[in-house]
Design a protein that fits this description.
By secondary structure, the chain is an alpha+beta fold. The protein has 2 helices and 6 strands.
Amino acid sequence: MGHLNYGNGARFTFDDRLLTHLRTVILAKLNLQESLVFTWSDDQQQHSIWLHPSVPVHFEFDERSTDELNPAWIEQLLAFANSQGGLRLVEEPPQPS
């Protein structure tokens, strides 16, 4: 399990594979100086954070290397990130052949 550290001490836990894909999408948006809302649920509650280019973000992974990216999943996550509802988690689609 990896961690998304945001701002001054907020720390959220995600599976490394998911976090790798989230990193790609979040950094793509922040690199363009675009803000976005990111919403997800865990066992206890729903979370929403406002990601802004001026706020520090740090990704930590348990594994030294990350899996190959699934382009279909990146496309889905980016579509949500670019929507009014913001980035939210969806199941990973099958890898394109």
